[in-house]
Amino acid sequence: MTNVLQYLEKTMTHIPNPDKPAFIGETGSMTFRQLYHQSRAIGTFLADRGVRQQPIAVFMEKSPDMIAAFLGVAYGGNYYVPVDAEMPPVRIQLILETVNPPLIICDETTQPLVEKWGLPYATQLFSGINQHPISDNTLAQIRAQAIDADPLYVVFTSGSTGIPKGVIACHRSVIDYIDSLSGVLQVGPDTVFGNQSPLYLDACLKEIYPTLKYGASAYLIPKSLFMFPVRLIEYINDNRINTICWVASALGLVAGLGALDKFTPHTLHTVAFGSEVFPIKHFNRWREALPQARFIHLYGPTEATGMSTYYEADRTFGPDESIPIGQPFVNTEIILLDDNDARPPQGEPGEICIRGTCLSLGYFGDTQRTQAAFVQNPLSPFPDIIYKTGDMGYIGPDSRLYFIARKDHQIKHMGHRIELAEIEWVASRCKDIQMACAVFDSDASRIILYYMPQNDATKAEVMTELKTNLPRYMVPHAIFPIENLPLTAGGKFDRLSLLEKYLENKKGK
User: Fold this and answer.
1) Which end of the chain has the smaller Cβ count within 10 Å, N or C?
2) What is the pTM of this model?
3) Which CATH number fits domain 420-508: 3.30.300.30, 3.90.1710.10, 3.90.780.10, 3.40.50.12230?
4) What residues contact residue 257 under an 8 Å CB cut-off, 6+ apart?
5) For residue range 103-138, what is the model confidence (pLDDT) as tens digits?
6) Which of 352, 348, 355, 441 is nearest to 405 (CA)?
7) Residues 334, 336, 338, CA angle at the centre, nearest 5°?
């Protein structure tokens, strides 16, 4: 297989009922037959416009239509750049300026925004092109000229400088990823996914392409439900969702707010999680609620086309343990490198580096950052590119890979090198804390901890717990209870907004 569209085409020839819903959203659904027809119509439209091998922005609200637009862009021999109205307008404009698309596919909600902002790009309503006359001959010619190294999408992630980075993935890297992931998750025609992530992030690949490959179904869960865990569980049960691939923080909120004490998502048999460290007490609560379910820890960066390693967590973990990130997917190699570009001894930390066809093509229009992150493998005598993740890990005595922390979350304080993730890990074990996020005020050399309280604990009680469990040099200088920790679009803790919140409050005093 050389093109992801072959997933849909093969399913259309084998599925017993092409009118089975493939994707179900808040405002409607789309069957495999509709998806096949509408995406091919969009592909033909683009070809008739002479648009080929170019970035096409898909600026729509989260819906099955948006997925059809993605596939339509691919059918036209182009690559899609997903954006969404929930993004800040400045970020949307930065992305569009970076890729300079010849066309933006919009819906009735987003097209007026492009006009309102005065953006100099041509727009086309999805509803105006999804029934365009299909030319089988034109689409066949496009496919005949395609190779598996052609780009499929550009997804923008947050850069450390604040400037978004556009990661370019190709058909081959996505196929390698989806084939491996589907095997780990044991996806089949009866799989019913519950999608949590936005469609403008690579996290949604876990639901979109396995659904196409196996003729499964995927519900695009309304974002609002994640603020009401009981209603979220009811939604899962009502729609008989059996497989979820969520960020750990979303699962942690459900457990931390006590929803599992009232209701059980009894239809779930596979729970995959990643992106953030999953507090052990919340993980154990999920396993207690679903003793027969499979729990799979996934790890991987966008630059390696999604997830790169997995570990089936089939037991309860002690409070002092960490859940491994396990072993690499098929056709992927994980290499740890120390500061001297050598493999560290077992048990010693090293930067996690990834090798294989899973690697993306780099950053759109940014050769300098691409060359800094995608580098020659120092262990290889021949040309061999690896991706340096910026994550630190080690190989445990069980020969499994363990995640330590981000290199850029390491601080120097009181003469000690400190991982903010270690402070968060200790804090999350405290009986009076549901979840916690640490930030560092470098100007004042102060560690700040924001936490979601539990058991109506006072700040004094929480601080006493922290002082009991942390070395003196790791104890936060200030702690602040917060109703909900802010998250990035990808579901990770939004440390930047918390630091800005702290600095603004400090400035106002």
Assistant:
1) C
2) 0.84
3) 3.30.300.30
4) 229, 434
5) 999 999 999 999 898 889 999 999 999 999 999 999
6) 352
7) 165
